[in-house]
Amino acid sequence: MKYVLMFIETEQYAKDLAAMSDAERGAAYDEVGQWFAQHAAQITHHMHMQPAHTATTVRLDGDRPQITDGPFVEGKEIVSGYVEVEVADLDEALAMAKTWPACPIVEIRPASS
Prior knowledge:
The protein is flat and about 50 Å long. It starts with a strand and ends with a strand. It contains 3 helices and 6 strands. Strands 2-5-1-6 form a 4-stranded antiparallel sheet. It has a two-stranded antiparallel ribbon with strand order 3-4. The chain is an alpha+beta fold and about 110 residues long.
């Protein structure tokens, strides 16, 4: 089955990451690299997204589309990246998500081809 694991940053996580020394941040990124290496066989695609302030949103709920700079919702949690995985079932996707070493929230959704 295909799933998408979305990595979601909180304001506190972003602050903590920014407050790290270069060495601490490097070690944190190394852990993420190890996670990707450990799950390389299941990962079919992945992407790290630019910060939310770089987003452009198109709203289609009125007479005319409205385009605004910034994310769809101003929120305290933002999706910062994702992986597409091919796994046997939700339990395997959950096992992967439970070992994610970075953002404190991982949302898992089934994906269709």
